[in-house]
Design goal:
Rossmann fold; 5-stranded mixed sheet; 5 helices
Amino acid sequence: MKNNLFLITAALFLSTHAYASTLYESLSHQSSVPFIVETVTDSSKDKKVDTTALKAAVEKALFERKSIHFKQATDSKDAHLKVSIDVKNYYWSDHDPVDMLMGVGGAAMDAAVIEDYAFMQADVRIVDNKDKMIWSESVTSTITKKDMPADKAIVLINDDFAKSFVKSAFSKKRSA
């Protein structure tokens, strides 16, 4: 009886969490995967994100993925994967926040070094060619760097975000 209850509970859990944590296994064996980045919206407070540049950065990062052969679809109906991105938060500052480093020395060093800081967080959804959601996650990216003015930061954060997204969605998960 306890085994049946466990199996029923596991089946219910898996059915409510239908999309994969990574899409690597299901896509890595395909000769090519047509995709389209459909929408990039900026719902952040200040609306400073260049959505066109972010879309281009994500497309470039997908092309550069070697173990999955992505190709851009010319039309949404031809795409096997449709990506939509909604930027929820974007922040740039000329002073990076103090990191949670171990020990007084590390925190003091971090506080003494002044660097520019950029942060982006976006909700990313991937649906298949039947418009069934197969992956969804909130992806974040941060950059801390000297001499990173606000206009340069948005370009750098776009590229870093695109790489973080590809890693989150399409990496081969390593077993422990």
